[in-house]
Amino acid sequence: MKIHFTKMQGAGNDFVVLDCTRSAFHLNADQIRFLGDRHMGVGADQILVVEKASRPDTDFRYRIFNQDGGEVEQCGNGARCFAKFVFEKGLTDKRSIRVETMKGVIEPRLCDDGRVRVNMGLPRFEPEELPFLCQGVSHLSRGTDTLWEVRAGGQDCWVSLVSMGNPHAVMVVGDVDEARVSEIGPDLENSPLFPRRVNVGFLQPLSRSSARLRVWERGAGETLACGTGACAAAVAGMRRGLFDSAVEIQARGGRLLIEWQAADGEPRPVYLTGPAAIVFEGEVDIPEGGLPAKGANHV
Ligand SMILES: N[C@H](CCC[C@H](N)C(=O)O)C(=O)O
């Protein structure tokens, strides 16, 4: 089955974007895995689906699938690429849109400098929001944050928990280049403490307004940037008293600006600003059966 796609990236987090505003989306998980596969298919961290709004108070609906084929709640770099796509393809004449996702409405706006600024909604911190099975897990307070002790990669890790609609566990490290991302990341992603798995952030504060970050993403592995991961890490750092209300997050693939004014304790949305670019357009013939199961004989 031949389909047209648009390849996009935001700070190096890359996507296959499918315009399903005129034809229904109907790919199964194995076909999505084919699109995301960097050897057998097109290659991307996530697959983004653009659909017509299903609610009168929104302009579009936005569905997100990880490279492993699972549908997820939110994607921040993808939200910027989604917005850039609909602006550039003339699917809207607005510069600010309201987009329905699996978990709430986000509001991307095209900035004069070509970046996109997104209201990513309210962060949530209760363990049940991720979910995280906190029964009997050691924890301590740090500022207005709670740190939880979890074992991963053969070591004890103290993590902050933040939901941006999707689940994040964030730990502070001395040097992201030295962080054991590929050992701790998958161990924590698949820990029984996180029934829906989790994204894992490794945060290195540099000042009260800047930090480096690496993220092992649920369903995709380490990516060059993670938008919701940047939101989660910045907000966790603010709650720990490490950052002021605006933080430049330096990911391996680019820089993201996170703003969150929550000093008065009132629930406030998180704003994510960063780049989004179309890389190329293409056609691809998706095999009926999609990508063979991992380990299956390809020949
Ligand atoms: N891997 C994430 C989805 C994509 C998030 C990331 N690409 C972003 O920019 O927020 C999850 O399973 O929750």
TrEMBL record:
<dbReference type="InterPro" id="IPR018510">
    <property type="entry name" value="DAP_epimerase_AS"/>
</dbReference>
<feature type="binding site">
    <location>
        <position position="13"/>
    </location>
    <ligand>
        <name>substrate</name>
    </ligand>
</feature>
<keyword id="KW-0028">Amino-acid biosynthesis</keyword>
<comment type="similarity">
    <text>Belongs to the diaminopimelate epimerase family.</text>
</comment>
<keyword id="KW-0457">Lysine biosynthesis</keyword>
<feature type="binding site">
    <location>
        <begin position="76"/>
        <end position="77"/>
    </location>
    <ligand>
        <name>substrate</name>
    </ligand>
</feature>
<dbReference type="GO" id="GO:0008837">
    <property type="term" value="F:diaminopimelate epimerase activity"/>
</dbReference>
<feature type="binding site">
    <location>
        <begin position="227"/>
        <end position="228"/>
    </location>
    <ligand>
        <name>substrate</name>
    </ligand>
</feature>
<feature type="binding site">
    <location>
        <begin position="217"/>
        <end position="218"/>
    </location>
    <ligand>
        <name>substrate</name>
    </ligand>
</feature>
<feature type="binding site">
    <location>
        <position position="199"/>
    </location>
    <ligand>
        <name>substrate</name>
    </ligand>
</feature>
<feature type="binding site">
    <location>
        <position position="166"/>
    </location>
    <ligand>
        <name>substrate</name>
    </ligand>
</feature>
<feature type="active site" description="Proton acceptor">
    <location>
        <position position="226"/>
    </location>
</feature>
<feature type="site" description="Could be important to modulate the pK values of the two catalytic cysteine residues">
    <location>
        <position position="168"/>
    </location>
</feature>
<comment type="function">
    <text>Catalyzes the stereoinversion of LL-2,6-diaminopimelate (L,L-DAP) to meso-diaminopimelate (meso-DAP), a precursor of L-lysine and an essential component of the bacterial peptidoglycan.</text>
</comment>
<feature type="active site">
    <location>
        <position position="75"/>
    </location>
</feature>
<feature type="binding site">
    <location>
        <position position="66"/>
    </location>
    <ligand>
        <name>substrate</name>
    </ligand>
</feature>
<feature type="site" description="Could be important to modulate the pK values of the two catalytic cysteine residues">
    <location>
        <position position="217"/>
    </location>
</feature>
<comment type="subunit">
    <text>Homodimer.</text>
</comment>
<dbReference type="InterPro" id="IPR001653">
    <property type="entry name" value="DAP_epimerase_DapF"/>
</dbReference>
<feature type="binding site">
    <location>
        <position position="46"/>
    </location>
    <ligand>
        <name>substrate</name>
    </ligand>
</feature>
<feature type="active site" description="Proton donor">
    <location>
        <position position="75"/>
    </location>
</feature>
<keyword id="KW-0963">Cytoplasm</keyword>
<protein>
    <recommendedName>
        <fullName>Diaminopimelate epimerase</fullName>
        <ecNumber>5.1.1.7</ecNumber>
    </recommendedName>
</protein>
<dbReference type="Pfam" id="PF01678">
    <property type="entry name" value="DAP_epimerase"/>
</dbReference>
<comment type="pathway">
    <text>Amino-acid biosynthesis; L-lysine biosynthesis via DAP pathway; DL-2,6-diaminopimelate from LL-2,6-diaminopimelate: step 1/1.</text>
</comment>
<keyword id="KW-0413">Isomerase</keyword>
